[in-house]
Specification:
The protein has 9 helices and 11 strands. By secondary structure, it is α/β, with parallel strands linked by helices. The protein has a single domain, classed as Spore Coat Polysaccharide Biosynthesis Protein SpsA, Chain A (Alpha-Beta Complex), CATH 3.90.550. The strands form 3 sheets. A 5-stranded mixed sheet has the order 3-2-1-4-8, sandwiched between helices. The chain has a 3-stranded mixed sheet with strand order 5-11-10. A 3-stranded mixed sheet has the order 7-6-9.
């Protein structure tokens, strides 16, 4: 069967923060998937400790798994993905991991999203950049430690777009790295450096940091909470997808 005709599952690890945001973010993500990814979509699987969200429809597969780790946020994401792999026997071998703060803006084939994207290569020349960023944010400190596991030549894989994962390789990664106890676990940079993915330099992605509504024609859009608090942005997104927020 041609790759373009194969169907693939989408797995969304969802935290309780979504409930606190009235589930508007996950509504955007799911609506965009249904609208633009139908050519390759098999199922949408949401793994979370939140009760099923009726507004999303009856075709969602819900798995109950909470955030059980306190030492590293991404350990919870890894745990949810692993739980899905181990509890959904017919999960497609290659599937897409999606987050509730990401959406797609145009008709999308599997070939448009089956190649992972990296943003920067870890090297002696870029070490100062990573060190400087690590001084400013916890996530960057975790990332730098993650990259140190692999050494120079490791890549920072884009954390703001959906990415393709292989269920067998993902379990291999889980068995190799002590994510349950150790920090320095950023899921994409851990996984794709572990499998030595070649990938491509990042492109076709816009990250809304301040409620921007001009996405410059990009296919993938990620956003911060600041955008959700921006009335203009919220109204624009609701009109774009034909949805209504709570």
């Amino acid at each position: 069967m041609a790759e373009e005709k194969q169907k693939h599952d989408i797995v969304i690890p969802l935290g309780v923060k979504s409930y606190q945001q009235k589930n508007n973010e996950i509504l955007i993500a799911v609506t965009s998937i249904r609208k633009f990814c139908s050519s390759w979509l098999n199922r949408i699987i949401i793994v979370t400790q939140i009760n099923p969200i009726k507004e999303l429809g009856d075709d969602i597969v819900w798995l109950n798994h909470g955030d059980i780790y306190n030492h590293d946020k991404d350990a919870n994401i890894i745990g949810k993905i692993r739980y899905t792999i181990e509890n959904v026997p017919d999960l497609t071998e290659d599937f897409m991991m999606w987050s509730d703060d990401q959406f797609v803006t145009k008709e999308t084939n599997w070939s448009d999203c089956c190649v992972p994207r990296y943003m920067k290569v870890y090297s002696p020349e870029t070490r100062a950049y990573f060190d400087d960023m690590a001084k400013k944010r916890t996530w960057w400190r975790r990332l730098r430690k993650c990259l140190d596991r692999f050494g120079y030549g490791a890549k920072l894989w884009n954390p703001h777009i959906p990415m393709p994962l292989n269920k067998n390789k993902f379990i291999e990664m889980c068995k190799k790295f002590p994510y349950r106890t150790d920090d320095g676990i950023t899921i994409y940079s851990l996984y794709f450096n572990f499998i030595k993915a070649e990938g491509k330099p990042n492109f076709d992605e816009f990250h809304c940091q301040r409620g921007e509504t001009d996405w410059q024609g990009c296919r993938w859009v990620g956003f911060f909470d600041s955008s959700m608090r921006n009335v203009t942005w919220r109204n624009y997104v609701q009109k774009f997808f034909g949805i209504e927020f709570k």
